[in-house]
């Protein structure tokens, strides 16, 4: 895509975010993590994000925040994600990671130019590459709430999972294939909700 157009697009997004304000997402009916809309093509719409369609640029407008682009490697698997910290979604504070739907070839190009961070937990993408990545669709949405969810709350909001799997003494994996959702319920730490397209649910195991 033309670089001048992308620059203008980023400027326009920044102005739009300034006008909208960070509380706009609070007004959306679908801002709650349990409000999952399943589309005919198998895509999911969660918190205003349609998996496989919404791109990173759109997500900045929807959340009225800019993200930090991170390259994360875990268990020999590398993903590129847009990290949003301390988002207020309808009164619920959370971190959200949007996984880029990017080819292995393009991911390797990003990896070759990634910059190490002092934390060592992830790498950052060079600014020269960021604009070219803005139109990349979102593959998965990972929601990490600041509040604790217990089994009762999960059952009330999402229903009973089709499968349960004990990962550790404190972590249980709940699988909802019909929703494209996997929940990691942690009694000693934060929960993690992974939303995927229906036909990719079994691969949503970060």
What does this structure look like?
With 206 residues, the protein is α+β, with helices and mostly antiparallel strands. The protein has 5 helices and 13 strands. The strands form 2 sheets. It has a 10-stranded antiparallel beta sheet, covered by helices on one side.
- Alpha-carbon distance between the termini? 31 Å
Strand content: 25-35%
Structural class: alpha+beta
Q: Are there runs of 5+ residues with pLDDT below 50, and where?
A: 5-9, 11-27, 200-204
Total of helices: 5
User: What profile does the largest beta sheet have?
Assistant: 10 strands, antiparallel
Mean pLDDT: 84
- Quick one: overall form? globular
Q: Write down the oligomeric state.
A: single chain
Using only C-alpha atoms, the radius of gyration works out to 17 Å
Helicity range: 10-25%
Count of β-strands? 13
Q: Largest sheet, order of strands side by side?
A: 7-8-4-5-6-9-13-12-11-10
Please provide the ordered H/E string of secondary-structure elements. Answer: HEEEHEEEHEEHEHEEEE
Per-chain topology:
Elements: H1 3-20, E1 36-38, E2 44-46, E3 49-50, H2 56-63, E4 68-74, E5 77-89, E6 92-100, H3 104-113, E7 115-116, E8 123-124, H4 127-133, E9 138-145, H5 151-158, E10 163-166, E11 171-176, E12 181-186, E13 192-195
Antiparallel strand pairs: 1-2, 2-3, 4-5, 4-8, 5-6, 6-9, 7-8, 9-13, 10-11, 11-12, 12-13
């Amino acid at each position: 895509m033309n670089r001048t157009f992308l620059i203008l697009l980023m400027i326009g997004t920044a102005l739009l975010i300034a006008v909208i304000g960070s509380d706009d997402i609070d007004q959306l009916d679908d801002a709650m993590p349990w409000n999952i809309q399943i589309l005919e093509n198998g895509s999911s719409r969660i918190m205003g994000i349609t998996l496989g369609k919404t791109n990173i640029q759109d997500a900045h407008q929807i959340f009225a925040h800019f993200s930090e682009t991170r390259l994360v490697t875990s268990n020999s698997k590398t993903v590129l994600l847009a990290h949003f910290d301390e988002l207020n979604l309808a009164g619920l504070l959370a971190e959200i990671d949007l996984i880029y739907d990017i080819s292995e070839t393009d991911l390797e190009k990003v990896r070759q130019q990634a910059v190490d961070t002092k934390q060592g937990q992830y790498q950052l993408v060079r600014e020269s590459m960021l604009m070219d990545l803005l139109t990349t669709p979102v593959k998965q949405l990972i929601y990490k709430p600041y509040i604790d969810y217990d089994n009762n709350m999960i059952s009330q909001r999402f229903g009973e999972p089709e499968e349960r799997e004990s990962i550790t003494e404190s972590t249980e994996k709940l699988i909802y294939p019909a929703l494209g959702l996997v929940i990691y319920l942690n009694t000693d730490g934060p929960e993690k909700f992974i939303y995927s397209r229906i036909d990719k649910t079994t691969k949503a195991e970060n």
